[in-house]
Amino acid sequence: MTEEQLKQYHAMFSDLWRFYKANCNVREDDAFWNKVTKDADLLYKKYNTELCKNMVLNILDELEKRYRELKKPLPVREYL
Known about the structure:
- By secondary structure, the chain is mostly helical.
- It has a domain at 26-69.
- The chain is built from three helices and no strands.
- Helix 1 runs antiparallel to helix 2 and helix 1 runs parallel beside helix 3.
- The longest helix is centred in the last third of the chain and has 22 residues, at 50-71.
C-alpha cells in the first residue's frame, strides 16, 4: 500500500469516526434522521469504496440499535 493510499484510508476512517461521534446521541425527530441519512450518503459518495459503504451501513445499524434501545419501555416492577 502506498503512502497516498494510507492517507486516504486515514482520512476515510477519521471521517467515519466524526460521523459516528456527531450522531451517536440519537434523537427521535425527523430532522435528525434526515441529516444522518444525508451525511451518510455524502460520506459514501466522497470515498465511493465497498469498505466505506460497509462501514457507513454498520454505523447506521448501530444508530438504529441505539434508537430502539432508547425507545424500549422500562421494565415493569413486580410488587409483592
